[in-house]
Amino acid sequence: MKILVVLLGILTLSACTWVNENTDGRDVNVSTSQRIGNCQKSGDINVSVASKIGFINRSSKKVQEELLVLARNEAIKLGADTIVAVNKPLKGAQRYTAHDCIN
Q: What is the bridge-based pairing of β-strands 93-100 and 82-85?
């Protein structure tokens, strides 16, 4: 019974979102490399979150959502208004480039 309670607690925590989007981060656009022709690159962004809790894998959708929120938040620090994913999420990490498209 005790093990069941611990497992249920871990599963519940694995569905939680721990990353908060700042207000300005909500305004950062997500684009593709084909659509940023006239944009100026502001920098590179590397973000990571926990993809596992103990031996339990977190939802890949939740992990990807949190990575996106972190990347948007980092873009604001670089003075960027657009981000582009460089790769797919792998083990809770992802790379983006930040761009200023509204000069």
A: antiparallel
Q: What does the alpha-carbon distance between residue 47 and residue 96 come to, in Å, rounded to a whole number? A: 8
Q: What is the pTM of this model?
A: 0.79
Question: Tokens 């000069």, residue?
Answer: 103
| Apex 7 CA angle, 68 and 11, nearest 5 | 20
- Tell me how far apart the alpha carbons of residues 64 and 48 are, in angstroms, rounded to a whole number: 10
Given the structure tokens 């208004």, which residue do they identify? 81
- Per DSSP, 95 falls in state E
Q: How many helices (H) and strands (E) does the chain have?
A: 2, 6
Looking at residue 12, its amino acid is: T
20-76 pLDDT per residue, tens: 767 778 899 999 999 998 899 999 999 999 998 888 999 999 999 999 999 999 999
Q: How far apart are the first and last CA of the chain?
A: 60
Question: Would you say 98 and 74 are in contact if contact means Cβ atoms under 8 Å apart?
Answer: yes
